[in-house]
User: Fold this.
Amino acid sequence: MAVSQLRLNPLTGRWVAIATGRASRPEDFAPRLEVPRGRLRCPFCPGHEEETPPALETYGRDGRWLVRVVPNLYPAFGGHGDFVVEDVGPVFHQAPGTGLHEVLVFSPDHHTSWADLDDRQAGLVIAAIRDRMEDHAEHSAVRYTQTIVNHGREAGASLEHPHGQLLAIPFVPEELQAELEGFADDGDGCVLCTTVAEEEAAGLRVLAADDRVVVVCPFWSGTPYEMLVIPRHHEAHLAGAAPADLVAVSRAARDSLAALGRLVGDAAYNLVFHTAPHRSTDRFHWHVHVLPRLTSAAGFEAGTGVLINIVAPEQAAEELRRS
Assistant:
């Protein structure tokens, strides 16, 4: 019987459990659930632009868009104003949910996921993310922008047409605060620069690497086939990265998702872009988390916050390289 192992995530200070004795083969993971179709007309397909609010950004040529950013019709955050906490009882504290919530439609093709983007489209998509983050930084009440892609119902997708979301919020969320503290705890170094050097030296968990970006199945992976896309150049803010680095990261995320698809099929996943809070001068190194949703969190994970990963990252990287 395989022995479980605890590994510390230096980005967040949290432990994860690697329990390979519970592992399934890649083909044993359940296929992702389809997103309900629900409507005959897709609001994100070309020709249906009137079904969304007017675009905030449009990228394309000759009158045809390739990438659009539109306000979310059902925003989780909206309105203007400062983040002012009101105490309404000894243990009741509230604040207005101000901010911005936008939808990034990253292809006019209803069936094109991030894994299917060509080189040009991958560059346009991350350019749109950069441009929106630059705009959000101009809003004094917005402290952080979270960019995500939810693919599949298990990952939170509610519409079939592939898209991402940008949520500009008036506070720094706990996950980012934990990562900021992880960088601060590393003294004069950088957790992710060190990770790149050590992972390349070990050679066990590197999925892909070139002169601009490295993809690893991190030592502290909390979920099967988790990947971390790290630009080599140390830059805190995604919006401050060189265009070539942005494009390289977007393509690396695409290639990683394509490898995942070849290995386990059309799996649900989240892409999570982490960047320093707007106007922050704290030490940080922007990066992208690739989080497949192949297993479900159960009571232990919910009760402790400790993830149990049934596929060791060393095994995951080897399988993904072969796929």
